Amino acid sequence: MTVPFPKLAGVCGWPIHHSLSPLMHNFWLKKMGITGAYVHFAVRPDDAPRAFGTLTRTSISGVNVTLPLKKLAFDSTKYVTPDAERLGVANCLYKKNGQLYAHNTDLEGFAAPLLKRLGPQKIMNTPALVIGTGGAARAVIGALLSLNCPEIRICGRTDEKAEKLRREIDLPSIYAVPWRHRQISTPSAGLIVNASSAGMKGMSELDLDLKMARPDCFVYDLVYTPLETGLLRQAQQYGLPHLGGLEMLVGQARPSFKLFFGQTPPEDLDPSPLLKQALTRKIQSTANA
């Protein structure tokens, strides 16, 4: 009997010990009976170009990449997928035919849970308000454009960054909204996405009041630590449909797993309960420290 050669993949970042990706990928490996492992790789930014450059000479099939290494990963190879090219950053490096490719699964990761909840027809008829101007916001805007969202308003705490992002995309359906006017855009938005760090553990809550939001407005907060942000609590308070960032975390991991291990995890293999338990334990251990 031939024993399959174990495949190795992982996640790179600095710091990286907090990442839940190994928990999720190893859950799928075990449940799917695949011989392999997924581990943390601590990579300093000043050493990232060298580290990424050696991947083709190792048995590692690929790595996910998190902050602050996404741009360095994108610059590490001449082979870049259209999704990575569109965003200018990579959250995934994988090997194919002996070459290293830079890819970005954030567009798919954002879109998959949203499509499941709203469906393509609803998104095609829903104006969106996107809070944030960084890499996550770019992924959100790219995904919404691919889903034919009719109007996207970009709003960030720095007006210049929002306007710069609008100019770079340069489409008539994209608008930059000054931060001081963010509440004016709320009543007409059918989809509100927090793609900023506001509400994340250690950060201030997003300063956006949902009181005047449409009754059918869908609220999507990409933050998953904590699981329930102030924005999501507001959505619950006003009876608005909503979605947290844990779904995007799982959504972007599925295509990465396929690139690394050759199979897509079935939809019924949901690691969310396991991830929620891990996050709850972290919160409890922090509170008891």
How is the secondary structure organized here?
Blueprint: E1 7-13, H1 21-32, E2 36-42, H2 48-53, E3 60-65, H3 70-74, E4 79-80, H4 82-87, E5 92-96, E6 99-103, H5 106-118, H6 120-124, E7 128-131, H7 135-146, E8 152-155, H8 159-169, E9 174-176, H9 182-185, E10 191-194, E11 218-221, H10 230-237, E12 242-243, H11 246-261, H12 272-288
Parallel strand pairs: 1-2, 1-3, 4-6, 7-8, 7-10, 8-9, 10-11, 11-12
Antiparallel strand pairs: 3-5, 5-6
Helix pairs in contact: 5-7, 5-11
Explain this structure.
The chain is globular. Helix content is 40%, strand content 18%. It has helices at 21-32, 48-53, 70-74, 82-87, 106-118, 120-124, 135-146, 159-169, 182-185, 230-237, 246-261, 272-288, and strands at residues 7-13, 36-42, 60-65, 79-80, 92-96, 99-103, 128-131, 152-155, 174-176, 191-194, 218-221, 242-243. The chain has 2 domains: 7-104, Rossmann fold (3-Layer(aba) Sandwich); 107-246, 3-Layer(aba) Sandwich (Rossmann fold). The chain is α/β, with parallel strands linked by helices. It has 12 helices and 12 strands. The chain has a 6-stranded mixed β-sheet with strand order 2-1-3-5-6-4. The protein has a 6-stranded parallel β-sheet with strand order 9-8-7-10-11-12, sandwiched between helices.
